[in-house]
Specification:
Strands 2-1-3-4-5-6 form a 6-stranded parallel β-sheet. It has a 5-stranded parallel β-sheet with strand order 9-8-7-10-11, sandwiched between helices. The protein has 2 domains: 11-109 and 278-292, Rossmann fold (3-Layer(aba) Sandwich), CATH 3.40.50; 127-276, 3-Layer(aba) Sandwich (Rossmann fold). The model has no long low-confidence stretch (mean pLDDT 90). With 295 residues, the protein is of the alpha/beta class. It has helices spanning 20-32, 89-99, 127-135, 153-172, 183-192, 210-219, 229-237, 248-257, 259-277, 279-292, and strands at 11-15, 37-40, 52-56, 66-68, 83-86, 104-105, 145-150, 175-181, 201-207, 222-224, 241-243.
């Protein structure tokens, strides 16, 4: 029996591992508006007949395509594209002069559920209640300010360098530091970050997954030192304050001391996210590029 022919997609995204999340986000945004967009990880015959094909960080293999850059590598693959795209203005400014042509910015769509902003407040400690809890064999961290950290190997040095300051802060403002990362990164952290000041900073570790990160964002007060813009967006989408900059301990103090201003800042940040990263906004940006076609 002959296998039924696979119908071609309206719009196809072919992505490298590094660009897979971006491609899937674009496909989800387009499908939500009723377009037929599909994601492929490798060569697929049906994409030859798509209205438009986007190659995300991989070598193109059709004559009519859009090339999407996730960084400043593989620029040679963009030759022959009728449009070149990337996720940020900063990257466009870097690669456009090297390519000698315009690079259009199509932001990443928002991921995860939208949560109401929550401004953390310093929680009062009750040492009598803590003593009673210990006597009863109960663990309670309800008075602690909850920090979340996630990153890769290149981020370990930064959080390790920040940890002594967190320990000092924890003596006046007890903290939890929940680390979500790959097993290799967690092992490196355990070797360099000691839990010998548990009363000041209580450490916990979880292997990274989309579910683990989503749950950790929901539970935390602050996302600590997110280097990637994607993580900063995820924190704002979850209604949590992302602590960035060279003095995170002071930033935590200020946020706790001024909860109203922190809440207003989060509300404003969510509004700005919607203006640039709402799925419908991102989908329409792709469609404008697709409809223009080759010049």
């Amino acid at each position: 029996m002959t296998a039924p022919a696979v119908s071609p997609p309206e719009y196809a995204f072919i992505a490298s591992d590094a660009a897979r999340a971006r491609a899937r986000g674009a496909v989800a945004a387009l499908n939500a508006l009723g377009y037929d967009a599909r994601h492929y990880a490798a060569d697929a015959a049906e994409v030859q007949h798509a209205k438009a094909v986007v190659f995300c960080d991989v070598r193109p293999y059709t004559a009519r395509f859009v090339y999407d850059l996730v960084d400043d590598r593989n620029l040679q693959f963009a030759e022959g594209a009728y449009a070149i795209t990337c996720p940020t203005v900063a990257l466009a400014q870097v690669v456009a002069p090297r390519l000698g042509r315009a690079v259009e910015v199509v932001p990443e769509p928002l991921e995860g559920a939208r949560r109401e902003p929550r401004a953390a407040r310093a929680k009062p400690r009750s040492r009598p209640l803590e003593w009673l809890a210990r006597r009863a064999g109960l663990a309670t961290d309800s008075w602690r300010t909850r920090l979340l950290w996630t990153g890769d190997k290149s981020d370990v040095e930064t959080i390790v360098g920040t940890y002594p300051g967190l320990r000092r802060l924890g003596t006046e403002l007890p903290l939890t530091l929940h680390c979500v990362a790959t097993p290799e990164v967690l092992e490196a952290l355990r070797e360099q970050v000691r839990d010998d000041a548990a009363d000041a900073v209580r450490l916990s570790f979880d292997v990274a997954s989309s579910q683990a990160l989503s749950q950790a964002l929901e539970a935390c007060d602050f996302l600590l030192l997110p280097r990637e813009a994607r993580l900063q967006r995820a924190a704002v989408q979850a209604g949590r304050h992302a602590i960035v900059g060279d003095n995170p301990c002071e930033a935590i103090r200020q946020a706790l001391a001024h909860p109203r201003e922190t809440l207003e800042s989060l509300q404003s940040a969510q509004q700005k996210l919607d203006e640039a990263h709402a799925p419908a906004v991102v989908a329409r940006a792709w469609v404008r590029i697709f409809m223009r076609g080759p010049r």
